[in-house]
């Protein structure tokens, strides 16, 4: 876990709480698209994404609490890309930033355990503080990986409502019966949508570990441009412990800093507003100022 002075002794949820208190909800996405590499004067190569990532880390350090490297932009360069990502992850954690590996892994339970070990083991070359994870092989398949994360002081963000248009029919579908396929996870209401059932099961997992602290270590991914009502999601509902939210969709995709409280309601205090392209297009010389400005806007929106 990052040594940035955030820990409250309550695992990832406590670390996240302190980072939000110190810096506000901005999460800086590190997404080295080819067009951005070109704008930054960098090659489309492992060396290019490494330099891009390290410059983004330098700009974010002391200005935001969280960064989120998109793993796909590094792994496209094979082993050299992974070596570049290892350097970026290590630099970000050394700078005191919370690091979310945007890996979106999903599999049967035994394979998923391997992904959790790769990304969430202290001392691993790919060590991050949290990772994104895909539950669409059944929320029950996540149970072992979630337990592993918590046992190692780490976090996970489970995809629940994503903003891509293709997701709406699946995630908004109404379940025919109880949503949970794992006895240790609380059953969801028969009328729940897929998105709602995922949120309910994650909240139930956190509630089973209330001794961890007031903020859960397992969160959900809710796209900021999603119609939550259409996905059956009630953002006015309270969760105990508090439910962390990773919210992509700010900036380039259309959600505005001023909209955080309106969009996320009771979830807003623990929502990370993730923004990448609209910040990164400021270039290496303008990125720090862009992060400062957006972080200030987001803090003001939650006052």
TrEMBL record:
This is Orotidine-5'-phosphate decarboxylase. InterPro entries: Aldolase_TIM, OMPdecase_type-2, OMPdeCOase_dom, RibuloseP-bd_barrel. CDD domains: OMP_decarboxylase_like. Transmembrane segments: none annotated. Its EC number is 4.1.1.23. The keyword Lyase applies. Pfam families: OMPdecase. Pathway: Pyrimidine metabolism; UMP biosynthesis via de novo pathway; UMP from orotate: step 2/2. Keywords: Decarboxylase, Lyase, Pyrimidine biosynthesis. It catalyses: orotidine 5'-phosphate + H(+) = UMP + CO2. Residues 25-291 form the Orotidine 5'-phosphate decarboxylase domain. It is an enzyme of class 4 (lyase). It comes from the Bacteria. PANTHER family: OROTIDINE 5'-PHOSPHATE DECARBOXYLASE (PTHR43375:SF1). Belongs to the OMP decarboxylase family. Type 2 subfamily. It comes from Gryllotalpicola koreensis.
């Amino acid at each position: 876990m990052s040594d940035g002075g955030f820990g409250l002794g309550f695992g990832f949820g406590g670390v996240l709480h302190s980072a939000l208190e110190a810096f506000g909800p901005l999460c800086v996405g590190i997404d080295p698209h080819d067009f951005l590499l070109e704008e930054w004067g960098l090659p489309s190569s492992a060396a290019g994404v490494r330099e891009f990532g390290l410059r983004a880390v330098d700009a974010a350090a002391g200005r935001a609490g969280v960064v989120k490297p998109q793993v796909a932009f590094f792994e496209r360069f094979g082993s050299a890309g992974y070596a570049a990502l290892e350097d970026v992850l290590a630099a970000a954690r050394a700078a005191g930033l919370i690091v979310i590996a945007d890996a979106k892994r999903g599999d049967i339970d035994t394979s998923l355990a391997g992904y959790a070990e790769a990304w969430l083991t202290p001392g691993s070359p790919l060590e991050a503080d949290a990772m994104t994870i895909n539950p669409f092989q059944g929320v029950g398949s996540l149970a072992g990986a979630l337990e592993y994360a918590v046992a190692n002081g780490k976090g996970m963000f489970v995809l629940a409502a994503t903003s891509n248009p293709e997701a709406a029919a699946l995630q908004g579908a109404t379940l025919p019966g109880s949503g949970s396929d794992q006895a240790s996870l609380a059953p969801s209401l028969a009328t729940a949508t897929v998105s709602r059932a995922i949120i309910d099961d994650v909240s139930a997992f956190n509630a089973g570990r209330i001794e961890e602290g007031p903020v859960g270590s397992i969160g959900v991914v809710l796209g900021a441009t999603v119609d939550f009502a259409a996905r059956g999601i009630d953002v006015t509902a309270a969760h105990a412990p508090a439910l962390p939210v990773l919210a992509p969709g700010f900036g380039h995709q259309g959600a505005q800093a001023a909209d955080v409280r309106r969009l996320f309601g009771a979830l807003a205090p623990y929502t990370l507003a993730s923004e990448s392209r609209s910040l990164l297009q400021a270039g290496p010389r303008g990125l720090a100022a862009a992060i400062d400005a957006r972080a200030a806007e987001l803090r003001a929106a939650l006052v």
